[in-house]
Design brief:
With 191 residues, the chain is mostly helical. Helix 1 crosses helix 7, helix 2 packs antiparallel against helix 3 and helix 5 runs antiparallel to helix 7. 76% of the residues lie in helices and 0% in strands.
Length: 191
């Protein structure tokens, strides 16, 4: 004699693969959307960077005066722009990709190579997150200042936190890219 709740439990268990796939697809969509928004916001940083460089150049060449904060401000903005944009570039397949081997593989082989590649990237990002966090933490504790020797001499500890933060964003996007391949393989297996 079967337990009345057993049928319901069996139904949940049978739905688990579909539920898991739905959760993966929800995660993928959420991460892709988040990465897109972050990437578009970071792209706007080019505007203040151009303004800083232009202002610095005009002050130097037309008014013969230096802007003590110009160089480092442009450096901060460009640094955030570059390291923060890694996840966005990864989402849109904008990084260099050598496909000499993968172009000759069937779709399943390409998916497996993609999974392997994402795992390699995730392992590098895990180290970056760990070491970047230690580096930023030590900088925060001493309220580290710039080593460029300008009159402005800004604190830079806050800037160093962008390294692990950007690595986390990149790792989330790598995870989404990995799961896209897992979903593809699961759907291919089902036929």
């Amino acid at each position: 004699m079967s337990h009345p709740g057993g049928t319901a439990l069996l139904g949940v268990v049978m739905q688990a693969p579909k539920l898991l796939e739905d959760c993966m697809e929800t995660f993928i969509k959420a991460v892709d959307s988040f990465t897109n928004v972050i990437g578009k916001v970071l792209a706007l940083l080019i505007i203040p960077m151009i303004a800083v460089v232009l202002y610095t150049a005009v002050m130097r060449y037309w008014f013969k005066t230096s802007v003590p904060w110009g160089f480092e401000m442009a450096l901060f903005i460009f640094g955030i722009y570059c390291i923060g944009g890694g996840a966005f570039a990864h989402l849109h397949k904008s990084h260099v990709n050598v496909d000499v081997l993968t172009s000759h593989l069937p779709p399943t082989g390409r998916a497996l190579m993609e999974i392997f590649g994402q795992l390699v990237i995730l392992s590098v990002l895990a180290v970056t997150i760990y070491l970047g966090s230690l580096w930023a933490y030590k900088s925060t504790v001493i309220l580290e200042r710039s080593i460029h020797g300008t009159e402005w001499n800004p604190q830079i500890w806050w800037f160093k936190w962008f390294v692990p933060f950007s690595a986390v964003l990149f790792a989330l996007q790598c995870s989404a890219e990995l799961l896209k391949q897992v979903v593809f393989l699961r759907q291919k297996k089902r036929g």
